[in-house]
Design a protein that fits this description.
Number of helices: 5
Helix content: 25-40%
Enzyme class: transferase
EC number: 2.7.8.7
Family: Belongs to the P-Pant transferase superfamily. AcpS family.
Keywords: Cytoplasm, Fatty acid biosynthesis, Fatty acid metabolism, Lipid biosynthesis, Lipid metabolism, Magnesium, Metal-binding, Transferase
Strand content: 25-35%
Radius of gyration: 14 Å
Catalytic activity: apo-[ACP] + CoA = holo-[ACP] + adenosine 3',5'-bisphosphate + H(+)
Number of strands: 5
């Protein structure tokens, strides 16, 4: 059963400018593993995923960007790991599995998230 759906889009150029303008932003938005060797369009898609997770959970107050992490499996397929408040809310809703799709093209990055129970 689908318990929540979230989608988000990010303008890559605007996102890149924000990262340059605010040097500490990367560390506030992304785990060390998420940052490793990632081009800005990939980071923008991961940021969209974090926002989409919040939407799939009903946008509860107090979620932090580091509580949702995009990791890749052995085949390179993106997956979500949640912790902290995001994990608590997901547990309360009965989320058992996450589905994630990332894409970027023509200066836009997007993420689509489904929370399944």
């Amino acid at each position: 059963m689908i318990l929540g759906i979230g989608v988000d889009v990010v303008d890559v150029k605007r996102f890149a400018a924000a990262l340059e303008r605010t040097p500490g932003l990367r560390g506030r938005l992304f785990t060390e593993d998420e940052q490793k060797g990632r081009a800005v369009h990939s980071l923008a898609a991961r940021f969209a995923a974090k926002e989409a997770v919040a939407k799939a959970l009903g946008a509860p107050d107090g979620l932090g960007h580091l509580e949702a992490e995009v990791v890749c499996d052995e085949n390179g397929r993106p997956e979500l790991r949640v912790r902290g408040k995001a994990a608590e809310v997901a547990y309360g809703l009965g989320v058992k599995r996450w589905h994630l799709s990332l894409s970027h093209d023509a200066g836009v990055a997007m993420a689509y998230v489904i929370a399944e129970g």
